[in-house]
Amino acid sequence: MLPTPRTFSHIGLSVPDVEKAVKFYTEVLGFYVIMQPTKVVEDDSDIGKMCTDVFGAGWKQLRIAHLATADRVGIELFEFNGNHAPAENLNFRQHGTFHFAIQDPNLEGLLEKILAAGGKQRMPVREYFPDEKPYRMVYVEDPFGIVFELYSHSYELTYSNGAYT
Questions:
Q1: Alpha helix (H) ranges present in the chain?
Q2: Strands 135-141, 147-151: parallel, antiparallel or unpaired by DSSP?
Q3: What are residue 10's phi and psi, to 5 degrees?
Q4: How many separate helices (H) and strands (E) can be counted in the chain?
Q5: Could you tell me the pTM of the whole model?
Q6: What percent of the chain has pLDDT over 90?
Q7: Residue 22, class by beta-carbon neighbours within 10 Å (0-12 exposed, 13-18 middle, 19+ buried)?
Q8: Is the pLDDT of residue 165 over 70?
Q9: pLDDT 10s digits, 79-89
Q10: 29-61 in b/e burial notation, b at 16+ Cβ within 10 A?
């Protein structure tokens, strides 16, 4: 017997400036703020202890904001002291997460907004199954170099009924 499929709760992103990230993710992608940017310090408070459990001793302080998507998936934005951009922002050969995806039927319009806000387009907009389905996708970066993908249609519609055949 297979396990029951789980729902996706949230994803955490490390950003260089939490206020600028909140502005981008709310004004460009339309996410909404659940908790405004807040300072958390390494101390004996419940949140301080939890962060030390996760990050280890010596993290000192961070800033965090909580956002959500229209389908209630959380976006946790972290600004750590001394954070830095990775040497390669799409290190697909390294184990771990290397992108997430956002869905918008007006993919090209959202792409224009991302570019106008300082993001980057990593590839041309491509059609999946151009003779059968009008589904489009493109990889982009936010203004901080975080890579994500835009889909014009749902994941299920895109890959159902013979994907890659």
A1: 18-27, 46-55, 107-116, 155-159
A2: antiparallel
A3: -165, 170
A4: 4, 9
A5: 0.92
A6: 81
A7: buried
A8: no
A9: 999 999 999 99
A10: bebeeeeebeebebeeeeeeeebeeeeeeebee
Helix (H, G, I), strand (E, B) or coil at 38: strand
Say how many Å lie between the first and final Cα of the chain, rounded: 28
Tell me which residue has tokens 């491509």: 126
Give the rounded distance of the alpha carbon of 47 from its chain centre. Answer: 23
Q: Name the amino acid, one letter, at 36.
A: Q
Name the nearest CA neighbour of 38 among 85, 76, 82: 76
- The two structure tokens encoding residue 29: 């992608």
Q: DSSP label at 48? A: H
